[in-house]
Amino acid sequence: MSDLHLLADGVGEPAWLRRSLIAIAVAFMAVFLLLPLANIFHAALSEGWRVFLASLHDENAAAAIRLSLLSTLSAVLISGVFGLAAAWLLGRHRIPGHGLWVAILDLPFAISPVVAGLMFVLLCGQDGWLGPWFDRHGIQVIFAKPGIVLATAFVTFPFVARELLPLVQALGPEAEEAARLLGASPWQTFWRVTLPALKWGLLYGVILCASRAMGEFGAVSVVSGHIRGETMTLPLHIEAVYNEYQFGAAFACASLLSLMALVSLALKSFVAWRARRDRESA
CA 124 to CA 68: how far, in whole Å? Predict the structure, then answer.
């Protein structure tokens, strides 16, 4: 409680400085965050509801929405499973080059998404290392949906792992060892002891991962091939119709993407609130 009081009143700085900082922060968020977001919804509806709904029901727009949802769901599943496994491995075990592997987790954050897309082209493209093998088995990765899923999963991989790694390190093995001594199987121990302790971190990472996946542009743009109605996600479709001067359709699709982002933000805030409440009541 004393910490909250100190946080609310600052650390003794002058009142004019505190008010100035508040004014700068509020003005920045209003001009650079809220105003552009509100302008997107205004522009989307400027030509009326009929144009707005027709833009979303367009055949190519509908295909782009479906592909965005598919790639997001796939990326969440891949990043969730491998993120949980990576966090468990690095949080519970000391492996050779442990610090290096922890640093590698952040590679997708450090590297440009465009470069990430080029990496997959060089790896899985027709002339890439694995391209001939895919060709012999009739599998097309680049300029097809598998490439989009791989690129999206790559750029979103660290979110789940980074959220879970400190939780796994803080959890400790005591509760699991007690469950095993009481006769619980490894699966029962994981399902009833480990996972409940990690659930809010896992859910928080999944939400961040989904939010990032829905808006991914750079890496997907490189591997997609821009085939309209087949390999264009919603961000790519927005760029395409905007370049064709279909501003109403572009802003309508952009408003849908923004709405998804706002829903993700609300879910993230809810999960953070529930996790904080659980910690306080424990």
Answer: 21
The candidate with the shortest Cα–Cα distance to 10, out of 19, 146, 103, is: 19
173 in Cβ contact with 92 (< 8 Å): yes
Encode pLDDT of 118-159 as tens digits. 999 999 988 888 988 998 999 999 999 999 999 999 999 899
Calculate the alpha carbon distances from 268 to 85, 119, 209, 243, 272 in Å.
22, 31, 11, 33, 6
3-class DSSP state for residue 184? coil
- What count of other Cβ atoms lies within 10 Å of the Cβ of residue 207? 24
CA atoms within 13 A on the CB side of 2: 0
Instruction: Please tell me the pTM assigned to this model.
Output: 0.85
- Identify the CA nearest to 176 among candidates 273, 91, 82: 91
H-helix or E-strand spanning residue 282 = none
The alpha carbons of the chain give a radius of gyration, in whole angstroms, of 23
C-alpha distances in Å from residue 126, one per residue of 62, 133, 231: 29, 9, 17
What 3-state class would DSSP assign to 3?
helix
Q: How far apart are CA 152 and CA 210, in angstroms?
A: 10
Question: How far apart are alpha carbons 279 and 272 in whole angstroms?
Answer: 11
C-alpha pair distances (Å), 25 with each of 22, 74, 249: 5, 37, 33
Please report how many Cα atoms fall inside a 13 Å half-sphere around the Cα of residue 122, on the Cβ side: 6
Specify the residue for token string 């492996």: 95
Q: What is the mean pLDDT of the chain?
A: 88
Instruction: Let me know how long the chain is.
Output: 282
Q: Residue 10 is which amino acid?
A: G
